[in-house]
């Protein structure tokens, strides 16, 4: 067994790439009408999912997704060494209460919408480092809980500018294992916080794009390969405008991203759904990765991808106190078995 | 180089125990009048610390503490492989903005008041696992930002029950290294979320005690040693009543904790300071560990300790929706060089 290798400044190449033993996704009704609807394991009939509040619905969705991932892998909570999870709600309550139900040693993460990929990167390190045989990880978000927490009371019906994105309701979860059958996480890269001064909570794609470009460029320079080395490079939730900005920012640093560069937020909704710039939220990259990407890989239609969770480190309090919105992007490389 | 070993269900024994190369602490004015005042590196003259808001003061305190830890270790941000940090503010803004300033690849953590120890445990795994040579980690809290976020507007002057604790203003930070001189982190244990149904945000010691007892008992059973194996077992911020509850809960599970069991929240203030049950907040365990414990160790007066960060996974939103307050406890064992 060799040791993990650091390539360049930030990229980690795993000595024994951890295996994605299973993945699960549950989405809300709107996502269940979108172009990726056939890829999700369950589609909620409404935003309450049988609960009395949106927050409880969000928690239930995360917990069910994790239970589904465990059951697909044929494993139980007691088999897991660690649970890594987070969400957008203050004090990551969906993750905390899910951890309470599952009883697995738990590390709470907060990477805003990048949390799924923070978990994938970290979980892979914990396995490759010899600290775990199995790690359960996931992230969730809910349109209505996020909207009223970050922006306006949902009932107020404020008009949304065209740069706004739509927080995805749903959750994705993965069981990572030291050995077994499935795609492997070969590389991970932890992002830096980057801030170009964007201050509009209705234009988060622009706030996150510089951090996403920083991580993509850094990773490609670390491995000294062109973007075409991956069949797909995909960011988490930059939306239409954020994606265009990443292309421009990467180009300024000598990296020309081609048609193999996509964004989960662009894919999850179509124009007719009136979501403006696209999807966002922890569940955007989580459900597209656990639903679409990993199922395409299972079907043999995708050989590898470099996925990047992108987070806007937005806080209503910091915005009110005049701060801009910094972003972050964490990435992992997944290779089909 | 051997591989890390899992002992029992949850305890990890590091193959090459990471070194605490430096530690720094800054506290607020009240903590600077308490019994541990001579151990802290800096004491803020007032709660604003030269900033316009309490939130900005909190962020500045965290950043200065991290810069101080780096400078004590003779290292720069660019030398660090990872930054691990979190705090109590919604969206961990103090940590995010500190990460923006330092430019180090950043993983945001949320473990409520256990965050310092979540970082110590995780940072040690990242180093022992071969993913990092240096990790900078820390946590902070601020009485006034926490009070107005979690309980009542600070200006309202609500009377506090005797079970209430006082959120510590301050920050602790540590530079962990793969090699070098200093105390070593020999073991880590990641806690499970435990909930006995306590629902009063003014009695967080009771909410956290079951999780703390769970981790302490589990660890001692994992290593199959009595509590006296450590010179000191210390919890993060249970306060007077929470500490007593841990002693009772451990006893029910066959572990008799003696006078070598203490709590950071009990030590940081004295009776005359009118803090009721004691200190709490991320900074409670962070400043007592980085100030008092590691300085006592440096002076040769403390050979080892099992420290446990304790977190109440409290959310104003979940409390309003009728939920109880689950707790968590993460621990590390530190041995003098």
Automatic annotation (TrEMBL), chains A, B:
Gene Ontology terms for molecular function: acyltransferase activity
Q: Which residues form a coiled coil?
A: none
InterPro entries for the chain: SpoVAD, SpoVAD_sf, Thiolase-like
Q: What is this protein called?
A: Stage V sporulation protein AD
Species assigned in the record: Desulforamulus ruminis (strain ATCC 23193 / DSM 2154 / NCIMB 8452 / DL)
Lineage of the organism? Bacteria, Bacillati, Bacillota, Clostridia, Eubacteriales
């Amino acid at each position: 067994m060799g040791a993990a290798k650091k390539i360049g400044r930030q990229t980690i190449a795993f000595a024994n790439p951890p295996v994605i033993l299973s993945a699960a996704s549950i989405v809300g009704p709107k996502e269940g009408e979108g172009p990726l609807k056939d890829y999700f394991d369950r589609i909620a009939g409404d935003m309450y999912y049988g609960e009395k509040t949106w927050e409880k619905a969000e928690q239930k969705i995360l917990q069910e997704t994790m239970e589904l991932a465990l059951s697909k892998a044929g494993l139980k909570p007691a088999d897991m060494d660690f649970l890594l999870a987070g969400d957008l709600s203050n004090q990551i309550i969906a993750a905390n209460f899910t951890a309470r139900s599952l009883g697995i040693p738990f590390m709470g993460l907060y990477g805003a919408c990048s949390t799924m990929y923070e978990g994938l990167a970290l979980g892979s390190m914990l396995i490759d480092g010899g600290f775990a045989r199995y790690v359960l990880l996931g992230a969730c978000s809910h349109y209505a809980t996020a909207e009223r927490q970050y922006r306006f009371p949902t009932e107020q019906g404020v008009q949304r500018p065209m740069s706004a994105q739509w927080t995805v309701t749903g959750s994705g979860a993965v069981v990572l294992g030291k050995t077994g059958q499935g795609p492997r996480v070969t590389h991970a890269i932890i992002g830096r916080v980057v801030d170009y001064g964007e201050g509009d909570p209705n234009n988060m794609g622009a706030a996150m794009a510089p951090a996403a470009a920083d991580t993509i460029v850094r990773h490609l320079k670390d491995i000294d390969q062109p973007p075409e080395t991956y069949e797909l490079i995909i960011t988490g939730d930059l939306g239409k405008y954020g994606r265009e900005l990443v292309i421009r920012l990467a180009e300024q640093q000598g990296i020309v991203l081609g048609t193999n560069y996509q964004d989960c937020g662009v894919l999850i909704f179509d124009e007719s759904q009136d979501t403006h710039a696209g999807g966002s939220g922890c569940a955007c990259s989580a459900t597209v990765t656990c639903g679409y990407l990993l199922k395409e890989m299972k079907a043999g239609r995708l050989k590898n991808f470099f996925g990047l969770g992108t987070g806007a480190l937005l806080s209503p309090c910091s915005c009110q106190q005049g701060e801009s919105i910094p972003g972050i992007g964490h990435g992992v490389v997944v290779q089909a078995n």
